[in-house]
Structure formats: C-alpha cells, structure tokens
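Incident log, structure service

09:12 report received: a user says their structure output differs between two submissions of the same chain.
09:20 pulled the input from the user's history:
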Amino acid sequence: MKRSVIGHLSLVICLILGCMAFTSCRRDIIYSQFRAMPCNQWHQDSVQTFDYTIADTSADYQMLVYVRHTEHYPYQNMWLFTGDSARQDTIEFYLADDRGQWLGNKRNGFIEMPVLYEENYHFSDTGTYHLTIQHGMRDSVLRGITDVGLEVVKNER
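09:34 re-ran on a clean worker, output below:
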C-alpha cells in the first residue's frame, strides 16, 4: 500500500513538473509561414513575400528566417536579401560546418536551419507588415532548397 501511494505521488509530481516546464518554455508565435520551392529549386528572381500582422506594440519580437534544404544543396553558406518598407538587409549564414557536416535540425532527409533575423525588435505601429526574402547567391537557381519561411515570435516579459 505504501509503495503504490509513493508511486502515484511520484507520478503526480513528475506530471506537474513536466507541465510547468512545458508552459514556462512556451513561445508566443504570432506568425509562422513557409513557402515551398517547386522541384526543390529556388530561382533568384523568385522573391518570397511574407505578410504578418502586429497588434501589440508594447512587446518586443523575435524574427526567424528558416531555410529547409536537402543534402543536395551544394554550398556551405547562403546569402539572403531581405527587405520591408523601411530597410533592406543582407544576411549571410552557414548551413554546414568546416568539415561539411550540416547544421540545423535534420528530419526525414531534410535539414531546417533557423536564422535569427531580429532578436528584440519593436514595432512602432500596429498593422500589416511585409518582409521579402530573396537568395543572393551567384547561381541563378539554387538546387536542394525545399522551403523558405518566416516566424515572428512575441518575446515573453
């Protein structure tokens, strides 16, 4: 009898701790969208546009650009041109380390690489915002790219 009460109590404590850990790591994703690249090829003139709405200007936001690719992507790095109505940016990031090992999350033959675009960004106005993403590589067609995405996350205070 004593052993089953202790076992049940341990199970309840584990469930409570698990729920607390899950809710404390909760991310408030306000936008997440991916665009599939036809035939796993991203053409240089194929500009990806993401439209998202900001309703809370008191918060800071994190913006992540995602690139999903296969092992057929031929380079270690990637350049992106990003832009909105206020500015244009160029981003370089690495998809593989110096030994050629892919970085990012590997799943089912695909590799997903999140790139931090903005860490504590503050929007001054509510409304709809637009972000464009275009690859800035020398090849006019990048093979091995399956998806390009954007995620906007409200920072917890």
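09:41 both user submissions now match this output. Likely a transient worker issue. Closing.
09:42 reviewer note: The chain has one helix and eleven strands. The radius of gyration is 20 Å.
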